[in-house]
Design a protein that fits this description.
It contains one helix and twelve strands, in the order E-E-E-E-E-E-E-E-E-E-E-E-H. The protein has one helix spanning 143-154; strands spanning 4-5, 31-32, 38-46, 52-58, 62-68, 73-86, 93-95, 99-102, 107-112, 116-122, 127-129, 135-136. Strands 1, 2, 3, 4, 5, 6, 7, 8, 9, 10, 11 and 12 form a twelve-stranded antiparallel sheet that branches. A hairpin with a 5-residue loop joins strand 2 and strand 3 (38-46). The longest helix is centred in the last third of the chain and has 12 residues, at 143-154. It is globular and about 45 Å long.
Length: 155
């Protein structure tokens, strides 16, 4: 049985365990992240494994700071563009209609000079590297304490 949910989709609570979950994406609210100019609509989240699918909107000039993709990450650019600001692929640009995926262990920062809308699929939450040396997840929680056991099970 799955432990995945669509956060903020209260009607799903009454569904049988093996029922399909139809998500009215337009009815979901955008939620701010701790990164200026970046909001998300969580579509699927599995707390046990870290699997997540979200719509991500970046305002013009927004930056997703340096992070590591602990497992494969997939992004389809629906509108606008996404550009690698740092990392081995600095300058690579993914534009509307294109799809990019990143291998486990890849590390970079990303930005959207003109803004964009993306469908992002994560097998495990990214690990962010704070200036004070801490390693956190998207929510700012200690990455190892929150996801370390899930990462160990996935190997």
């Amino acid at each position: 049985m799955t432990t995945a949910v669509t956060p903020h989709a209260s009607a799903h609570a009454a569904l049988a365990p093996l029922s399909s979950r139809l998500v009215d994406v337009d009815a979901l609210d955008w939620h701010p992240t701790r990164f200026e100019g970046i909001v998300v609509k969580p579509l699927l989240f599995d707390r046990a494994s870290g699997l997540a699918t979200s719509l991500v909107r970046m305002a013009p000039g927004a930056v997703l700071p340096e992070h590591e993709h602990v497992a494969i990450e997939q992004t389809w650019v629906i509108e606008g563009h996404l550009v690698d600001q740092t990392g081995p692929d600095t300058g690579i640009e993914c534009t509307a209609g294109q799809f990019i995926w990143r291998p486990a262990g890849s590390r970079h920062s990303a930005w959207s000079p003109k803004g964009g809308l993306f469908l992002a699929i994560f097998q495990m939450p990214n690990r962010f590297f704070e200036t004070d040396g801490r390693e956190t997840d998207m929510a700012g929680q200690d990455w190892t304490a929150t996801w370390g056991s899930s990462a160990a099970r996935a190997k």
